[in-house]
TrEMBL record:
<feature type="domain" description="Thioesterase">
    <location>
        <begin position="13"/>
        <end position="215"/>
    </location>
</feature>
<dbReference type="InterPro" id="IPR029058">
    <property type="entry name" value="AB_hydrolase_fold"/>
</dbReference>
<dbReference type="Pfam" id="PF00975">
    <property type="entry name" value="Thioesterase"/>
</dbReference>
<dbReference type="InterPro" id="IPR012223">
    <property type="entry name" value="TEII"/>
</dbReference>
<dbReference type="InterPro" id="IPR001031">
    <property type="entry name" value="Thioesterase"/>
</dbReference>
<dbReference type="GO" id="GO:0008610">
    <property type="term" value="P:lipid biosynthetic process"/>
</dbReference>
<comment type="similarity">
    <text>Belongs to the thioesterase family.</text>
</comment>
<protein>
    <submittedName>
        <fullName>Thioesterase</fullName>
    </submittedName>
</protein>
Length: 243
């Protein structure tokens, strides 16, 4: 029996490759504005972590414990880029466990094509990764340092390999009940049409919000992000309301 008395719904946030960043902060802030408890969780640490099922098992259990502790009646899974793939991957597992009614919000997350492929950094060279990051406003002094760039690029390629496998494991026939997607129209790495393609995998309500900006959100998009989160909450019934 849960001993929670707060009754706060839960927003579980997953980061883009590299972890953290402004978008994750904005997701957590939006959750707080809507009275949700924000819980930031990592993506799978490696392809082996994903393939073994360990990441999914421990993440679902951590979400279940957090929801029980806070007396949550519903859960929002929110993710940026590869974090959105994590959210999409976990929703069926949470539904099967009957943890709580669960909604999904993805930010600049590409829908896999019919072959399970997504735009990826896993095979990009250091200079190619630097160009992608530079367009998204990454500090030039870090990109100009070859050793620092090599370290950053190595980590991103590792995360991208996990994202590739997440995409491969989302079968074309898999269907989401509902999904809200937000994307930056100036994102050169994840084109808007790759976010819009999620509509083909949703059997219920799909909403796409396109905002100015690139791959990472900035505070100017916080209002749009808040509206997208409100939209998810509007179609995700609280536990007592489920027929």
């Amino acid at each position: 029996m849960s001993t929670a008395t707060t009754g706060q719904d839960l927003c579980v946030c997953f980061p883009a490759a590299g972890g953290g960043g402004t978008t994750l902060t904005l997701l957590r802030d939006a959750a707080a504005r809507h009275g949700l408890t924000a819980l930031a969780l990592p993506n799978a640490a490696s392809v082996a972590d994903l393939d073994s099922g360990r990441w999914q098992e421990r993440t679902v259990e951590e979400i279940r414990r957090a929801a029980d502790h806070r007396g949550a009646r519903r859960i929002v899974l929110a993710g940026h880029s590869m974090g959105g793939l994590s959210a999409v991957r976990l929703q069926p597992a949470l539904d099967m466990r009957g943890v709580r009614p669960t909604g999904v919000l993805v930010v600049n997350t590409p829908c896999p094509d019919s072959s399970g492929r997504i735009p990826t950094m896993s095979q990009l060279t250091d200079p190619e990764i630097a160009r992608v990051l530079a367009h998204d406003g990454f500090p030039a002094e870090l990109l100009d340092d070859e050793d620092m760039l090599a370290e950053i690029a190595h980590g991103l390629r590792g995360d991208a390999a996990v994202a590739d496998r997440l995409a491969e494991r989302l079968a074309p026939g898999d269907r989401l009940t509902d999904l809200h997607a937000l994307c930056g129209r100036d994102d050169r790495f994840i084109p808007t049409e790759r976010c819009a393609a999620w509509a083909r995998r949703v059997s219920g309500e799909f909403r796409l919000t396109v905002v100015p900006g690139g791959h990472s959100l900035d505070p100017a998009q916080s209002a749009a992000l808040g509206r997208a989160l409100a939209g998810v909450l509007a179609i995700t019934p609280a536990e007592e309301e489920v027929a």
